[in-house]
C-alpha cells in the first residue's frame, strides 16, 4: 500500500484531514496490515508525499518536541503538528512514576519498535519489557487485547516485586528532548519557540 493509495482512500472516505505519522513517532504504527511491507518513512518524506497528493490538510507527527520542530513541519506545508511524547512528563498526564523516571533519564535515548504491546508494531522505550522477545523468545504475539492485557498484568506483578522495567513505555525518538512542566506552560513555551524559529528564518 503506497502513499497515493492512502491519500486517495482518506479522501474517498470523506476524512477532514490526514495525519502523516513518521517512523520516529511513539505508539503504534498507522498500518492496516501488520504482515504487509512497511516502508517506515520519516516524517518529512511522508508529509511531503501526502501534501503533494492530498487535497485534504496534512498534519505532521513523529519526533516533534519543540517550536523548531513545529516550524519544520509547517515548512513542509503541514497545516499543523501532532505531538505526543513532548507532553508525557506534564503533571496532567496519568504516566506513572516509573515511566516518568525512565523518560527523564538516559533510557530516553533508546527507543525501539515492538509488537509485544498489542501484537502490532509500536515504538516504546527499550527496556526489559521491549527486550522480552530476544530474552525469552516469543514466536507469535497474540492479537489485541490478549497481549495488551497480559502485558499490563505482567507489569503490575513485576512492580509488586519492585521491578519497573516491564512497563510498555511509549516514546518517540525525540524523547530526550521531553520537558517536565504543566501543559499550559509547555504550550506557551512552544508558541514562543515557534515564533522565534519563524522570526529567525525571515
Ligand atoms: C503515551 C502515548 C499514547 C498514544 N496512544 C495513541 C493511541 O491510542 N492511538 C493513536 O492513534 N496514537 C497514539 N499515540 C500517538 C500520538 O497520537 C502521536 O501521533 C505521536 O505521539 C506523535 O509522535 P511523538 O510522540 O514523537 O510526538 C500515543 C502517543 C503516546 C506518547
From TrEMBL:
InterPro entries (alphabetical): Aldolase_TIM, NMO
Pfam families: NMO (PF03060)
GO molecular function: monooxygenase activity
Cofactor(s) annotated in UniProt: FMN
Keyword Ribonucleoprotein applies: no
Keywords: Detoxification, Flavoprotein, FMN, Monooxygenase, Oxidoreductase
Catalyzed reactions per annotation: 3 propionate 3-nitronate + 3 O2 + H2O = 3 3-oxopropanoate + 2 nitrate + nitrite + H2O2 + 3 H(+)
Domain of life: Bacteria
SUPFAM superfamilies: Inosine monophosphate dehydrogenase (IMPDH)
Gene3D superfamilies noted in UniProt: Aldolase class I
The family this protein is said to belong to: Belongs to the nitronate monooxygenase family. NMO class I subfamily.
PANTHER family: NITRONATE MONOOXYGENASE-RELATED (PTHR42747:SF3)
Protein name in the entry: Propionate 3-nitronate monooxygenase
Naturally occurring in which organism (per UniProt): Gluconacetobacter entanii
